[in-house]
């Protein structure tokens, strides 16, 4: 598909530079979220085009390098030892196997490899294999991302020295709703690790989940917390809850109205104009049309492959077909893929 010329007004808007702010008020953010849908999408799409190719999507692949047995009690998670989800716990994977997986992901079109371990925080003895994984992924020319739980300053520095590009540490929801979702740590603990990661010079991947039973105000407040950080997270994953049997939240979860989900994406794009906004977990429950609306609202990143940490993902052939129908190509951050093959 070839791009068509935008009318001059839209082009002029798209050509201007987005303003980066860290002082969003509750009222401003809520007014954007609740704006008439067409106005919201137009604004989000205009801001999106000021920083990004609107027809390119960044592709990540996720691997669970240590499954289950986690000491935290996140109410939505199959990997918590507090919930009876029948998910067997495993030891940390062999770094060589992880690197093998990264190579296959790169060959399938992923530019970033995201490795997750179900820990409250890594132990010092875990750091050597984790660092080997980071170095191995970097040697493949890919970006490396890790999510390992809470970090000490020293662990953050070790990861930075190994070349880790991104650290994922989601805040999940608003500060006010947080204790309804997680009780083993506080919202403040989360922000503390984010600060350590940013201080170490690692980029932050931080977002949340919709469908936990939160109200629209919680979604707005979650994004306002991120947008008002001294530095915006470079990646903002927005997940739609996949209820998992045996987790407390599965029993009380309320499905999210698709338009509310799209509004959340648009608000993230408007308040954090230069961040990658990722349409993360939950895509298997979304129609192609809903995903297209999310891209229109400024989502520009997905996970490829047919599994996430423990939940399903659409798979490469479905994503290839959707990208072809929408004229989207995978964003080539590394200069390794001549054409899209996600
Ligand atoms: S979301 Fe992460 S920290 Fe929370 S229980 Fe699951 S693996 Fe542990």
UniProtKB/TrEMBL annotation:
<feature type="binding site">
    <location>
        <position position="74"/>
    </location>
    <ligand>
        <name>[4Fe-4S] cluster</name>
    </ligand>
</feature>
<feature type="binding site">
    <location>
        <position position="278"/>
    </location>
    <ligand>
        <name>[2Fe-2S] cluster</name>
    </ligand>
</feature>
<feature type="binding site">
    <location>
        <position position="77"/>
    </location>
    <ligand>
        <name>[4Fe-4S] cluster</name>
    </ligand>
</feature>
<feature type="binding site">
    <location>
        <position position="114"/>
    </location>
    <ligand>
        <name>[2Fe-2S] cluster</name>
    </ligand>
</feature>
<comment type="function">
    <text>Catalyzes the conversion of dethiobiotin (DTB) to biotin by the insertion of a sulfur atom into dethiobiotin via a radical-based mechanism.</text>
</comment>
<keyword id="KW-0093">Biotin biosynthesis</keyword>
<feature type="domain" description="Radical SAM core">
    <location>
        <begin position="55"/>
        <end position="274"/>
    </location>
</feature>
<dbReference type="GO" id="GO:0005506">
    <property type="term" value="F:iron ion binding"/>
</dbReference>
<dbReference type="Pfam" id="PF06968">
    <property type="entry name" value="BATS"/>
</dbReference>
<keyword id="KW-0004">4Fe-4S</keyword>
<comment type="similarity">
    <text>Belongs to the radical SAM superfamily. Biotin synthase family.</text>
</comment>
<feature type="binding site">
    <location>
        <position position="70"/>
    </location>
    <ligand>
        <name>[4Fe-4S] cluster</name>
    </ligand>
</feature>
<keyword id="KW-0808">Transferase</keyword>
<dbReference type="InterPro" id="IPR013785">
    <property type="entry name" value="Aldolase_TIM"/>
</dbReference>
<dbReference type="GO" id="GO:0051539">
    <property type="term" value="F:4 iron, 4 sulfur cluster binding"/>
</dbReference>
<keyword id="KW-0411">Iron-sulfur</keyword>
<dbReference type="InterPro" id="IPR006638">
    <property type="entry name" value="Elp3/MiaA/NifB-like_rSAM"/>
</dbReference>
<dbReference type="GO" id="GO:0009102">
    <property type="term" value="P:biotin biosynthetic process"/>
</dbReference>
<comment type="pathway">
    <text>Cofactor biosynthesis; biotin biosynthesis; biotin from 7,8-diaminononanoate: step 2/2.</text>
</comment>
<keyword id="KW-0479">Metal-binding</keyword>
<protein>
    <recommendedName>
        <fullName>Biotin synthase</fullName>
        <ecNumber>2.8.1.6</ecNumber>
    </recommendedName>
</protein>
<dbReference type="GO" id="GO:0004076">
    <property type="term" value="F:biotin synthase activity"/>
</dbReference>
<keyword id="KW-0001">2Fe-2S</keyword>
<dbReference type="InterPro" id="IPR058240">
    <property type="entry name" value="rSAM_sf"/>
</dbReference>
<comment type="subunit">
    <text>Homodimer.</text>
</comment>
<dbReference type="InterPro" id="IPR024177">
    <property type="entry name" value="Biotin_synthase"/>
</dbReference>
<dbReference type="GO" id="GO:0051537">
    <property type="term" value="F:2 iron, 2 sulfur cluster binding"/>
</dbReference>
<keyword id="KW-0408">Iron</keyword>
<dbReference type="Pfam" id="PF04055">
    <property type="entry name" value="Radical_SAM"/>
</dbReference>
<feature type="binding site">
    <location>
        <position position="205"/>
    </location>
    <ligand>
        <name>[2Fe-2S] cluster</name>
    </ligand>
</feature>
<dbReference type="InterPro" id="IPR010722">
    <property type="entry name" value="BATS_dom"/>
</dbReference>
<keyword id="KW-0949">S-adenosyl-L-methionine</keyword>
<dbReference type="InterPro" id="IPR007197">
    <property type="entry name" value="rSAM"/>
</dbReference>
<feature type="binding site">
    <location>
        <position position="145"/>
    </location>
    <ligand>
        <name>[2Fe-2S] cluster</name>
    </ligand>
</feature>
<dbReference type="InterPro" id="IPR002684">
    <property type="entry name" value="Biotin_synth/BioAB"/>
</dbReference>
């Amino acid at each position: 598909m070839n791009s068509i010329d935008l009318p001059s007004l839209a082009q002029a808007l798209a050509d201007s530079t987005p303003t980066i702010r860290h002082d969003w008020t509750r009222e401003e953010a809520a007014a954007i979220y609740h704006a008439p849908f067409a106005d919201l999408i137009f604004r989000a799409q205009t801001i999106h085009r000021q920083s990004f190719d609107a027809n390119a999507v960044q592709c990540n692949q996720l691997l669970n390098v240590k499954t289950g047995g986690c000491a935290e009690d996140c109410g939505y998670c199959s990997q918590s030892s507090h919930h009876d989800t029948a998910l067997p716990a495993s030891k940390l994977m062999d770094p060589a196997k992880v690197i093998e997986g990264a190579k296959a992901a790169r060959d399938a079109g992923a530019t970033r490899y995201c490795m997750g371990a179900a820990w409250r925080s890594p132990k010092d003895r875990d750091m050597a294999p984790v660092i080997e994984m980071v170095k191995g992924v970097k040697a493949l020319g890919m970006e490396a991302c890790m999510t390992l739980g809470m970090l000490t300053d020293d662990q953050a520095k070790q990861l930075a020295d190994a070349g880790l590009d991104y650290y994922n540490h989601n805040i999940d929801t608003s500060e006010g709703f947080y204790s309804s979702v997680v009780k083993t740590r506080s919202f403040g603990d989360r922000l503390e690790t984010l600060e350590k990661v940013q201080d170490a010079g690692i980029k932050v991947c931080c977002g949340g989940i919709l469908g936990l039973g939160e109200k629209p105000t919680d979604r707005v407040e979650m994004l306002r917390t991120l947008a008002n950080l001294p530095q915006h997270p470079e990646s903002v994953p927005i997940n739609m809850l996949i209820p998992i049997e045996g987790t407390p939240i599965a029993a009380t979860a309320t499905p999210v109205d698709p338009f509310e989900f799209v509004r959340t994406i648009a608000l993230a794009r408007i308040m954090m104009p230069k961040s990658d906004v990722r349409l993360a977990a939950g895509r298997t429950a979304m129609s192609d049309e809903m995903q297209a609306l999310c891209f229109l609202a400024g989502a520009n990143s997905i996970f490829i492959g047919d599994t996430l940490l423990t939940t399903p993902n659409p798979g490469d052939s479905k994503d290839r077909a959707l990208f072809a129908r929408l004229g989207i190509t995978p964003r080539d951050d590394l200069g390794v893929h001549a054409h899209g093959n996600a």
